[in-house]
Design a protein that fits this description.
This protein is α+β, with helices and mostly antiparallel strands. It is 31% helix and 11% strand. The protein has two domains: 5-88, Alpha-Beta Complex (Spore Coat Polysaccharide Biosynthesis Protein SpsA, Chain A); 92-131, no CATH class.
Length: 131
């Protein structure tokens, strides 16, 4: 890609800013950003955003170590959380809102959203939605 993915400009904003803004617009106010490679660059780019930076010194061992660091940073009384890699910066805030609403109306399990018949285990299927 020729650039550091989280700071890759998309329509004038870094990819990570698109992700953060989607969560903010969806009403999510406890946002954690897990950093690894070039963590200081990300931290500097996010100084004006209401996020908590969690650094993963083991990032070279793979994305799962970042997921572990992020989950470990969640408070014990948290009922649910999203995981969204910066690789998906164009997820719409409406999608996040619908997922949160769906979760609040079901039997509190782990859900993997899918689209147009994708993987299901159990899943919230977005077929027919405009998000």
């Amino acid at each position: 890609m020729g650039s550091f993915k989280p700071l890759l400009p998309i329509s004038g904003q870094a990819a990570i800013i698109h992700v953060i803004n989607a969560f903010i617009k969806a009403g999510i106010d406890d946002i954690k950003i897990v950093t690894g490679h070039k963590g200081n660059d990300i931290k500097q780019a996010l100084t004006d955003y209401p996020v908590k930076i969690v650094h993963n010194p083991d990032y070279a061992k793979g994305m799962y170590t970042s997921v572990q660091k992020g989950v470990a940073a969640i408070s014990e009384n948290c009922e649910a959380f999203f995981i969204l890699p910066v690789d998906y910066p164009l997820v719409k805030y409406q999608t996040i809102k619908k997922l949160a609403q769906f979760w609040s109306n079901i039997d509190k399990k782990n859900y993997l959203p899918c689209f147009r018949g994708g993987k299901r285990s159990p899943a919230f299927n977005f077929d027919g939605f405009d998000t």
